[in-house]
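Question: Hello, beginner here. Any chance you could explain the protein record under this note? Any guidance would be welcome.
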Amino acid sequence: MDDTASDTSRSTAAPTDRPRAGVAKALFVRLTAKPGKGDEVDAFLRGGLEAVLEEHDTRTWYAVRFAREDFAIFDTFPNDAGRLVHLAGKVGRALVARTPELFASPPQIEHADVLAFKLPGQSGQVNH
């Protein structure tokens, strides 16, 4: 399985060139806040940005709110190793520690393979 993405955004790139910041792996984490805890979850997720900025292999990270108590995190990585480092990082540990206090149920964590992506200055399809 190839964990790197081929870069189709540069017309001069050879087919074997790999983008340095490419993405191949992702996480989608669905979060349901306990009743009345939505604003605390909002603040918790916003506070996670600083820790994620320290992670070299976390290429993109989004914390989103769908409704009062309905949230998700979506992030991308160049490979499985980067994804595992992220899961064991500050935000992952804080998420586990604060689950009983903030969340109605355990976070639903889904591992995914990226099929295609668009980032500033590059895009591509990923062959797994």
Observations:
- The domain at 23-114 is CATH 3.30.70.100 (Alpha-Beta Plaits).
- Helices lie at 38-53, 80-87, 90-102.
